[in-house]
Inverse folding.
């Protein structure tokens, strides 16, 4: 099948900037539009989803994702709402939920369905909380209480504070780290803006990762939260 590489640097600006660009919204599709744009427009880290061999994946859903959404997005910078609706109809047929075509849903529910049940991808993240049994998942949703000193935070700050408050560690370096920002509704927004961190330092988030003592410079033996 025909494929197009992800957009980078000046090419991304040229193709994606302006009116009638991105993924056209329709009927509460914003959660899916934003997720698909983030996963495929400018990165190839999950392109294996588009070329998984049959019968490990659902060929019909894979074809819609690759040929009607990802390739047009990378080629023209625009995806019609009808293409996303085609995918939503297929997800409604494959999943246990009948509201994929009309209701707003949690992005995590969408990612779990398409990655695990339809395309058969192994979980991307392994997390451990407080020394308990490790958990596997496809994305990490930031949960945290409102903190007055964070007015316009960046992603690095939010991830670190969320991991700290939940006593979480990454068991291993993930091949892909999908992070869902704090949820908000029409009435309440935890942050008016969040600055994207172009690089993410996960050194302090890794379980049993050797780190430098802040006092003597040798390998640290104790960690203070």
């Amino acid at each position: 099948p025909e494929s197009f590489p992800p957009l980078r640097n000046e090419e991304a600006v040229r193709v994606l900037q302006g009116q009638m660009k991105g993924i056209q919204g329709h009927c509460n599709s914003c959660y899916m539009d934003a997720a698909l744009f983030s996963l495929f427009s400018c990165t190839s880290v999950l392109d294996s989803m588009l070329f998984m061999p049959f019968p490990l994946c659902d060929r019909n859903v894979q074809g819609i994702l690759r040929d009607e959404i990802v390739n047009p997005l990378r080629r023209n910078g625009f995806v019609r709402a009808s293409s996303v609706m085609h995918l939503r109809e297929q997800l409604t047929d494959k999943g246990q939920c009948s509201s994929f075509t009309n209701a707003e849903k949690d992005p995590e529910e969408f990612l779990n369905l398409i990655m695990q049940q339809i395309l058969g991808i192994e979980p991307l993240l392994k997390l451990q909380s407080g020394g308990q049994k490790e958990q596997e998942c496809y994305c990490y949703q930031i949960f945290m209480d409102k903190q007055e000193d964070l007015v316009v935070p960046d992603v690095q700050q939010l991830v670190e504070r969320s991991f700290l408050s939940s006593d979480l560690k990454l068991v291993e370096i993930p091949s892909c780290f999908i992070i869902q920002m704090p949820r908000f509704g029409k009435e309440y927004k935890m942050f008016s803006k969040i600055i994207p961190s172009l690089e993410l330092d996960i050194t302090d988030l890794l379980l049993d990762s050797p780190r430098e003592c802040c006092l003597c410079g040798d390998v640290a033996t104790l960690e203070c939260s």
About this structure: The chain has six helices and seven strands. The chain has a mean pLDDT of 90. Residues 59-76 form the longest helix (18 residues). The domain at 9-118 is CATH 3.90.70.10 (Cathepsin B; Chain A).
